[in-house]
Structures are given as C-alpha cells and as structure tokens.
Design brief:
Blueprint: E1 5-10, H1 14-26, E2 32-38, E3 42-44, H2 49-54, E4 63-65, E5 75-79, E6 82-86, E7 91-94, E8 97-100, E9 103-106, E10 110-112, H3 120-123, E11 125-126, H4 130-149, E12 159-163, H5 167-187, E13 195-199, H6 211-223, E14 226-229, E15 234-238, E16 241-246, E17 249-254, E18 257-260, E19 264-266, E20 282-283, E21 289-290, E22 293-298, E23 303-304, H7 318-336, E24 350-355, E25 359-364, E26 367-370, H8 372-397
Parallel strand pairs: 1-2, 1-9, 2-5, 9-22, 11-18, 12-13, 12-18, 13-14, 20-23
Antiparallel strand pairs: 3-4, 6-7, 7-8, 10-19, 15-16, 16-17, 21-22, 24-25, 25-26
Helix pairs in contact: 1-7, 1-8
Bound molecules: nicotinamide-adenine-dinucleotide.
The site of nicotinamide-adenine-dinucleotide (NAD) has 26 residues, from helix 5 and strand 24.
C-alpha cells in the first residue's frame, strides 16, 4: 500500500482555514494526513480587528475556536508556534516539535511594520492581533475614566493620534469616532473636548479609491471631529505622542494615545525560511508555489502574487487570501492525484472600507458605492467569508443573520 502523504498547513487565518475546510470537503478520506498548525487555538477575523481595537465590538465576537470549523476526523489541529520552515528538507520546526511534510501550505499572516521608526513599538499601540486589540480598547476607556475622575484634568487623555490613513487607519477612525461618542456619554465628558488627529505621510489617502470616495470618507470623519494632517511623515514616537516632520522641522504632537496603522508586513518566519523575501512576502509562481519548490505553497499576507502580464503584486486582503486557499486546496488534490496544478485566477469582487457600523465607501464589481449601501456590502463580504469557512452554523453563531 502506498504511504499516506502528509499535508501541513501553517496558520489558521483566512488563507489557511479556507485551505483546510476546502480540503476536508474535496479529499476522499485517507487520501492524505492533513495537519493544521497555529500558535492559537482560535481564528480571529482580522477584517474586524479595527472594531475590537476601538472597542465598538467585544474581542470575543470576532474570534471562534479553530476546532469548531474543522472536521477533526479529517484534519488534525496542532497548537504550536512555527519557528522555521526548511523547504529543502521539507521540515517545519515549531515550539511543539519538528514535522516532515510532503506538501506544505504557508499562510502565516501579517504583523505590524514600523519601518524602524524610533520609539514606535514602545510608545504606540499596534493593530495586529487579539492581544493588541484588547490592550488598545481597554486603554481608550481608561483615558476617559481617568479624565472624568481626575481633579486636574489632562487634555492629553482626550487626545488621540492615528498614524497612517490607509484602509486600517480610516476604518479604525470610523470606529474610534463612534467609541468616543459612547464614552463621552458614559463618563459625562464634553465630546467637543476630544481631539482626534490622523497623520499621513503621503499627499493623499486611500490610494486605491478615486476622489469621490476619498472625499466622502474624509468629510464623514471630519464631521465627527477628525483632523487630517496629510503630507506629514511620522519620524518618531515617544511618551508624549508622535514626532512629525513639517518641512525641515520636527514637531511634537501630543496625546496619551498614539496608534500606529501605517504599515504591515508578512510574518517574520518568512525571513529565515525562504530566499528573496521582502517585508515578509515572497513573490510566488502563478500556481502559488514558492519558486523552486513545487509542493510548497505560500498564500495570504506572506505571499506577493503578481497576476500574469502585470508588474506589481496585488494588495493583501482577506478576499485574495480566501480565493488562494481554495485554489491551493484544489492543487493539493491535483498533486495527490498525479494531475498538473492549475494557475490561480483572482476574481476581484470589490473592496469596501467601513466608516463605523452604518456607513462606508467602496468599489463593488467596478462601481463606486457609498453610505449605507457600502456598509451593507461590507457585512455581505464578512458574512460570506464566515459562511465559506464555517458554513451556515458558524454564520448563525456569529450573529451574521
Ligand atoms: P497601508 O500600507 O495600505 O497604509 C498605510 C498608510 O500609512 C499609507 O497611506 C502610508 O502612506 C502611511 N504611512 C506609512 N509610513 C508613514 C509614516 N511614517 N508617517 C505617516 N504615514 C505613514 O496599510 P493598511 O491600511 O494596514 O493596509 C494593509 C493592507 O491590508 C492593504 O493591502 C489593504 O488594502 C488591506 N486592508 C484591506 C481592508 C479592507 O478590504 N476593508 C482593511 C484593512 C486593510
């Protein structure tokens, strides 16, 4: 009898979970031994991290146990932190053992990238995972509580700095404006005393959107008290707030809460596992394998996928990660059946940037949408991803209907 092949999937984010949930559906029993490895035993919805970070939703509402979506007779879940991948020897090293594989899928996700800016890791909050979200949402409420209960009030308790006006920055600002409304009420604080400043190095924001959408988002946030400082690079962070460059001068912006949303990179494990990795991302072949390794796939935020005939990689999104997971599951089956692999074909259904719970801007099937329609589409997209991974049961459990 032929030896059963070992398939290992690293990371239970959108890419990895979509791979295993598809594999458990399409692979006949006993065709392969499938192991999913993650350092946590839960999946978190990274597309909702800005909500849990601002505190407009509870962190528990954006996580679910990995074992609730895998068929444990078909897929073995192993809790462990990946330390290194050796694609030459086909070995994965974790803090919970070393494992050999025949086919590997690397979907180890993103971490925050501070570009070596001094003080940023020590003095600014990051939007990176459930722990950073819990820390930040608690801290925001603490600042209101402290302001309300102090005799000598510190205006910096009500000042919030957000670094970066990309997708994460704008979506976080949308939630933050809603949270400060709620906390001002709760603690009897004058909302007009709250100061939210967004600092962006580039001369514009949300570069993937046109002026109509950008202006809509900016007006929405400005009406809720956000001040934008664009064309203003952050060059440092300290206990007082951000240091920014204005012309040739450095200026200190002061706040007791500074949040860095200005960059992400792929997992650091990529750096010591593959050659040619830049900011944690590896340029992959059209079938999503790592160059030189026919049975090692790299997907999600650790991969840089350049569609045939184009020059730049697609941006990293949950939508791409999930489509890559499906494509890889089919190719794993093809490898096991001795069939040729198929190239990945990305279908862009659109992108929505939320502005709080009830508003947003986006492009869906090539058309601009704003307001409630965009917020609705964002919910459709989120529900779709929950449904595709966990089926109708999980969608109900997470209150998506
Ligand atoms: P990003 O890199 O897209 O944006 C970071 C922003 O920070 C940029 O505008 C950049 O100019 C600015 N910046 C960088 N250095 C700076 C500095 N020193 N000072 C001031 N500003 C600085 O990062 P992101 O917003 O976290 O997005 C990461 C990826 O995830 C993107 O591909 C994005 O499309 C995707 N994403 C998608 C969604 C969604 O679909 N709803 C949500 C979040 C993120």
């Amino acid at each position: 009898m032929a030896e059963i092949k070992k398939v290992i999937v690293l990371g239970a984010g959108y890419a990895g979970l979509q791979t295993v949930t598809k594999l458990q559906k399409i692979l006949p029993a006993d065709e392969a031994e499938i192991t999913l490895i993650d350092k946590d035993d839960y999946h978190y919805e990274s597309v909702l991290l800005h909500e849990a970070s601002a505190g407009t939703v509870n962190y528990e509402d954006i996580i679910y146990p990995i074992e609730s979506v895998i068929n444990q007779e078909r897929v073995k879940f192993l809790k462990g932190e990946v330390v290194k991948v050796d694609p030459h020897a086909k070995v994965v090293e974790t803090n919970n053992g070393r494992f050999n594989y025949d086919i590997l899928v690397v979907g180890l996700g993103f971490v925050s990238e501070t570009f070596g800016i001094k003080g940023m890791l020590d003095h600014a909050f990051q939007i990176e995972n459930i722990q950073t979200a819990r820390k930040l949402s608690r801290h925001i409420e603490d600042k209101f509580a402290n302001y309300a209960s102090s005799k000598e009030k510190d205006p910096k308790d009500l000042a919030f700095l957000v670094g970066g006006a990309g997708f994460t920055g704008i979506e976080f600002l949308g939630e933050l404006t809603a949270r400060v409304d709620e906390l001002s009420n709760k603690y009897g604080v004058d909302r007009d005393k709250v100061k939210i400043t967004c600092v962006e190095a580039a001369p514009t924001m949300l570069p993937m959107f046109d002026d109509e959408l950008v202006n809509y988002a900016v007006n929405y946030l400005e009406e809720r008290g956000v001040e934008f400082k664009i064309g203003t690079p952050i060059v440092g962070a300290n206990e007082k707030g951000f240091l920014v460059k204005v012309g040739d001068e450095e200026q200190q912006l002061e706040a007791n809460t500074s949040v860095w949303t200005a960059g992400v990179r792929g997992s650091k494990i990529m750096d010591n596992s593959f050659e040619g990795v830049k900011r944690g991302r590896l340029v992959v072949n059209q079938d999503l394998t790592a160059p030189g390794f026919n049975e090692t796939f790299v997907i999600g935020d650790v991969s840089a996928y350049i569609p045939e005939g184009e020059e730049r990689p697609l941006p990293t999104t949950a939508q791409i990660a999930m489509q890559q997971g499906e494509s890889v599951a089919k190719n794993v089956k093809n490898i096991l059946n001795g069939q040729p692999k198929e190239p990945f074909n990305y279908v862009n259904r659109g992108t929505v940037c939320s502005l709080g719970a009830h508003d947003g801007v986006g492009i869906v099937y090539g058309r601009n949408i704003v307001g409630k329609k965009a917020a609705f589409m964002k919910k459709v997209i989120d529900t779709r991803s929950i449904f595709k991974i966990g089926g109708i049961g999980l969608a109900f459990k997470k209150g998506k209907f």
